[in-house]
TrEMBL record, chain A:
SUPFAM superfamilies: NAD(P)-binding Rossmann-fold domains (SSF51735). The lineage of its organism: Bacteria, Bacillati, Actinomycetota, Actinomycetes, Micromonosporales. InterPro entries: Epimerase_deHydtase, Lipid_A_modif_metabolic_enz, NAD(P)-bd_dom_sf. PANTHER family: BIFUNCTIONAL POLYMYXIN RESISTANCE PROTEIN ARNA (PTHR43245), NAD-DEPENDENT EPIMERASE_DEHYDRATASE (PTHR43245:SF52). This is NAD-dependent epimerase/dehydratase domain-containing protein. It comes from Spirilliplanes yamanashiensis. It comes from the Bacteria. Residues 23-252 form the NAD-dependent epimerase/dehydratase domain. Pfam families: Epimerase.
Automatic annotation (TrEMBL), chain B:
It comes from Spirilliplanes yamanashiensis. It holds the Pfam family Acyltransferase. Residues 122-241 form the Phospholipid/glycerol acyltransferase domain. This is Glycerol acyltransferase. GO terms for molecular function: acyltransferase activity.
Amino acid sequence: MVTAPLPGAAVTSASPVTPPRVVVVTGVSRFLGARVAARLVADPRVERVVGLDPHEPSARLAGLLDGVEHIRADARHAVRAIGELGAEAVVHLAVNGAPDPQHGGRAAMKEQNVIGTMQLLAACQGAPRLRKLVLRSSTAAYGASFRDPAVFTEETEPRAVPRGPFARDILDIEGYVRGFRRRRPDVAATVLRFAPMISATADTTLTRYLALPFVPTVIGRDARLQFVHVDDALEILHRSVVEDHPGTFNVAGAGVLSLSQVIRRAGRISVPVLEPALSAAVSMARNVGVGQFGLDQIDLFVHGRVVDTSRLVKEFGFTPRSTAEALDDFVAGFPDGAALTADRLEAAERAVLDRIRQVRAAGAAALRAAESRAGAGQ
Amino acid sequence: MSAEERSARQVLPGSVSFRPESVNGHHRNGVNGHVNGKADGVPPAPLHQGVADGPGDVWDARVAAALAFLRRRLSGQYEVDDFGFDPELTDGVFHPILKLLYRDWFRTEVSGVENVPESGGALLVGNHSGTFAWDALMLTVAVRDETPAQRHLRLLGADLVFRVPVVSELARKSGVTVACNPDAERLMSTGELVGVFPEGFKGIGKHYSQRYKLQRFGRGGFVSAALRTGTPIVPVAIVGAEETYPLLADIKPLARLLGVPFFPVTPQFPLLGPLGLVPLPSKWLIRFCPPIPTAHLTDAADDPMVVYNLADQVRETIQATLHDLLKDRPDPFGL
């Protein structure tokens, strides 16, 4: 297990911070929650990691949760868990980006995201030993408007209430955290606004979308996108728990890729669709309970979203790998099904050039032969 | 002799025996040479004269460069910046097309290029006219092709530009971003050359009888952005755009219906249909005026009086320069 000092140790030594001994992590039945809990268990400075989640983790994730005390309850029972355990830090990761048809769809998603956060924060407010709150938020907090600046800083306010359900939940959740900060100024609250996460193994709405052989896009729009690598997201979350970084931070890989570039680098073929048609198809699919693709994603693909991460880099002393590097890692994990790979294009280019050269060589040879015949004839 | 010329000579059909491996090897050299050395404009005259069957070489190089360009585009191996600006596409596709219009159609003449800073941020402020924003695009070409440093001009566009599909992406890829203070300040503080037309739709949608009369300069947001970042302001006067589509009337109900600021009636449009979109071949003059330094006024960015006076100074400078330029161009469509 991890016994070597973590990369963040150098930063903490400058301002001595004692890592919390008891940490409560919500949403451990899901990919990110399980990974964060596993890392905290591996950190010798953290004595006790308690997972709070009404659902049982999948078989793939269950192995990660050795050493995590799992309380099978939702946020309503958080009061007891957080109070009785004497939790010093709460990591709130039970924020779902898309409705899960198996767990009640949009209604349950809103219940968990908004009501769940409200109840969790109520419990946190009454926990005397609590010192730290870490919230997983999203860059969807900036909404989507045609008057938006090209790059969002943490201070940018959304220009309009977004139409995507996830973005609306995020705005509500961050509103509750603002209230919590006012009422418990002694608790260091860290809000991390993550760009879409990506990696070779991650399984998210976005990675499933990019794994399609033909990728639907919006006609006439080529959104600017940013990604953050899952490992970097985990590093940032871990440091937020064991170090002190109060505030709101954008978490994304530097650099920008346009959606068309992303699709081309992944070797997929894009199928541009009219925006109203795409929206209609998405809501129809939603009604019959297939697909997790929603208005949030369509808004992202129309408007794009780029954030300024200089505050994160300065505060955490850590630079996530760039958007392009994160995508490369994802593409490397998805070799099959790619139609237009860089190698194939290069081979095609070489073939065309060789062909031209052959034809010209043949033509030149024929010309020379004709000339020499003509010369001999004279 | 450069590596490129050598490799070009090696791929001459006559000089190489056609063994597959060696062909591949040479071909690779050729392509790499183009990628690194910007072969497009380079295949030089000496090569042409020095080697007997020269024209083939130039075309070989061009075909290879075009294929390499196509491969990079199709595999996504190019860079865009935070604003979505794609320099490769702009220089490779947009500019060559715009340049035809700039040089052969509008016969544009530029003066005062020494007033465009060779490095660091600067804010170019121009007059806006001509129903369609050709003046903004021509200014971009002028800055890229005629100034010593050959910089890219980063325009600030109305949000309407970004509402329209296709147009929004062409704009982003050619370096335009939304006209708002955060974007303007971010571009200027990273040392970019920023172009803005404070008259906005009031400028391009004005009646032909109002030609070369500067409209109101909005709230002077561009001045406070420049002040906050201490960026010099370069006034630019553009003559010629007014005559491209002389606006005779504005059908307001139709404009409201379509959600656009004005619906123009010009001698060509809508009478000639799509053909009416071809601009009239007016003679264009662009003059860059001496920069107005703002570094000493950084603290006054929020002082409305300072901002207003500076905006007025810029406006007066452009108006006076327009009058000067018009004296040099008695016939709008002459040479």
